[in-house]
Amino acid sequence: MNPRYAKALLLLCLFATNTNFASASAPMPGIWQQNNITVKGKVKDANGNPLPGVTVRVKDTPKGAATDASGNYVLTDVKKDAVLIFQYIGFDSQEVKLEGKTSLNLTMGESQKVLDEYVVVGYGTQKKVTKTGAVSSVKGAELQQSPNVNVSNALVGRVPGVIAINNSGEPGNDNSRIFVRGRSTLGNNNPLVVIDGFPRVGFERINGNDIESVSVLKDAAAAIYGSRAANGVILINTKRGKIGKPTVTYGFNQSFVTPTRLPKMADAQTYAQVVNEINAYGGQPAKYTPEEIKKFGDGSDPWLYPNTDWYDAAIKKISLQNRHDLSLSGGNEKMLYYVSIGTLFQDGIYKSSANKYKQQSVRANLDANVNDNIKLKFNLAGRLENRNYPPRSAGSIFRSLMRGRPTENAIWPNGLPGPDIEYGDNPVVTGTNAIGYTNDKNYVINTDVAAIVNIPWVTGLSVDGSFAYDQNFDVYKSFIKPWTLYTLADVNDPSHKLNPGSRGVSAPEFTQNFNSVQQLTYNVKLNYVRSFGKHNLSTFVAFEQASMRADTFGAFRKYYISDKLDLLNLGGDKEKNNNGTAAEFYRRNYFGRISYNFKETYLFDFNLRYDGSQNFPAGRRMGAFPGASAGWVLSNENFWKQSIRAVNYFKIRAAWGQMGNDQIDPFQYLSTYGFSAQGVMLGGDLNKAIYQLRSPNPQITWEVANNYDVGIEAGLLGDKLTFEGDYFLTRRSNILVSRSLSVPAYTGMTLPQENIGRVENKGFELVLRHKNDIRKFHYEVTGTVTHAQNRILYWDETPNVPAWQQSTGKQIDAPLYYQAIGIYKDAEQVKNTPHLNEARPGDIIFADVNGDGKIDDLDKIRVNRTENPTWIYGLTLNAKYSNFDITMLWQGAGGASQYLRTESGLIGNFPMAYVEDRWTEKNTSASWPRAFDRDREYWVGRQNTFWFWNTSYVRLKTLDLGYNVPETLCRRYGLQNLRVYVSGQNLLTFDKVKIFDPEAPQGSGQFYPQTKIYNVGVKVTF
């Protein structure tokens, strides 16, 4: 027999034998499986409420599961003698022996020590008890209690150290300006934002339901980010999958939006009387007779004597906002996943509004355990931000609303739009699509992948590498077309015939822009984490490089033959235009950290980053930024445990960090050139001329911040009462400023910026928390206080100015105003008080600061207040009882003032507050000056403190009241959990401004107002 056939026959016989054996021994595996069991159970808290998301792990194995929304878990193929470990943030972990039990229910006690929690820090996490830096964090679940769809509007009051100002509620343009511990530089004060480990922009538009946590690094903890850390760092981590069966969560919110505050303007009767007074002050005859003024008030002739409320004519009472969110999460020991999609819609507050914002977002976060030594992470996030505006800006529309005279028709009684205020501006029309549209679609793609490899032959050694590719595409289109407004043909014609008139542009105009921004980032880290008895060491060294490329293209055409043709190629060739720009940026960094602690009692951290930025010349391009911090947990010492038992936890810590700021205009070390609008004619062609943009400074270097911080952390009464306090000091040097103020203007010199500025910023933060359970009632109270105030130590000042006008020693941007000290009651008071020549009774009195008996520019004072608050307060109240829960956030701000003065007079209307208690000859003790015409009066045209409003406020920032449907009812319909709730944002505001919202931007009230939100929502988990 052929040997090959013999081998095949032998294998066949063996296979048949094994098959028969398996068949004959079928019961054997069942007997073997009896050694392993399936365990089921439920996890609750002390009040009997189910705990979702509890990690249930089989000790010394990778096997595990997570409880569902009803607190249930299932573990299969578990040994009878296994030990289960139950872990949940904020609760004491427990180990329970199975001893053959297949059903195991557990009640977890809320931890009176939250020190085992981890906080996210730069390039890693740290145990809360071992952190030595000033790091504050907030969970994504807390941010989701706010119905505001913009993440930047949900942080203030919740995170100590965060100061935020919201100047607008316009959909798609409602970001808050955020400062970490205030302002410390004369230049860019924006903090660095890091999303899932990579610096990125646009965090305001992240789907809030995807956020796991937000951490804010405020001192040496931020030094690991080197040249971009001086203004603080905000770290955002998005959600990841957890071990357990697939869980689907759907949420829906329907919101009803209205302005927090609109100014109440004078009615027609009041305005007509004020106009007569203005004319009288100017020596002009009265414009309106008493009979005409009466007609404005009684409404007998709405065609000729209307009483128009322009805000009511153009602004809706209620606008709609809604959002849908759907997520899927789960996984096993090999693969974890979190996937979500979301959509939201915001309508503007104009009637027939052209102002709308739509957003669609998608996210997929995957974690794979290839084997015991290799793990992979993959994140993909994308969103479309679709903004639609009228071609007229919000500022232009609200300028028209402020100036709209109540004695003129916004809308004629027959429903047609009235005449314009000027330049075609009638806000009833310009807030709609009747004048065209502006559409801005921003496509954002964020991707990153990471690999973590444990080196098996060296305990604690691992290497990880990550790569991020971020792409942004922005498509902008603006099409403006003529619109029609109507005027009375003849005021004496009883038929009230109206003449239509074309306004705005003479022919349709179209602008189209395309912008692309690409950012690539990669890094490699070598990590070593090891414990040697009571010694714990965590270190890493890393390399990172980032590049950015931006390209823009724009084109313009006009003379379209129809307003239905909004394509670029259909416009006329005359006066068409196009343009394009490009920019590149590169960074290269080397950095590392050493963290050491002994018995989690003596704590030390050291960070160092060696950064390179293209903004600086060769030889000055690289900078070293160290940070060091230390802590001592005194409560771990025997002497403390024996003597101070009431304080169960007490830690002191101190930190110093040196950080940079490279957010400056690039290439200042080079002579840069641009094209002028004019040029030189060569032949029949116009050739653009080149001119120098700036004088170079080849010595330009890093702006450096030295940050100092001292803090304490304490827990009392079993951590039912906790306290954290920090004192901080920042000294910023090498700030770029020019010496232009000290160089006479007649020289015509344009000086380069130099590293000569110095600023100091100091303050403190306090956080006090109390929580307790009274039977089934659980409550928590958290109060936060942040105080940060800066002062300029040195910069270029105009020489020989009086001390009271110098900005050195004052806050950044402290304004220079005349000091208003009252209102002249009569001519005698004018005569006996230093005054300007044109002063008269009813005018505002300016202080004679230098005491020379006259009022001039030397009497201006530097007011040490700005629009940025120096105090931020937060008070959060949480309570749960049975299936009900409530959260209330009160937030306040202090130390800020804002210059607000409307364009009122013959040009337009007054806020009613300006004129209802104005000075007249019969009301000489008035709280407001006499009627004025725009800036004709000296006390209007010359900026003074009368118009510098104290904008301190307290708001009911967030209110959330929810009800969780009982578990038995949910199970009946196949649900894990169902929560219905009502919530609100900016529901109440207490302040001294009254006319406008206290966060109004500086100017004349021409801004899209902040919004108040009433919301109903539902969240269901399957």
UniProtKB/TrEMBL annotation:
What are the GO MF terms of this UniProt record?
siderophore uptake transmembrane transporter activity
Compartments in which it is found: Cell outer membrane
Q: Which GO terms describe its biological process?
A: siderophore transmembrane transport
Question: Which NCBIfam families does UniProt cross-reference here?
Answer: OMP_RagA_SusC, SusC_RagA_signa
**Superkingdom of origin organism:** Bacteria
Q: Which UniProt keywords apply?
A: Cell outer membrane, Membrane, Signal, Transmembrane, Transmembrane beta strand, Transport
Family as reported in the entry's similarity comment? Belongs to the TonB-dependent receptor family.
Name of the protein described by the UniProt record: TonB-linked outer membrane protein, SusC/RagA family
> What range(s) does the TonB-dependent receptor plug domain occupy?
130-233
Q: GO CC terms on record? A: cell outer membrane
> Which positions make up the signal peptide?
1-24
Mode of membrane association: Multi-pass membrane protein
Q: Name the species this protein comes from.
A: Chitinophaga arvensicola
Q: Which InterPro entries match?
A: Beta-barrel_TonB_sf, CarboxyPept-like_regulatory, Plug_dom, Plug_dom_sf, TonB-dep_OMP_SusC/RagA, TonB-dep_OMP_SusC/RagA_CS, TonB-dep_rcpt-like
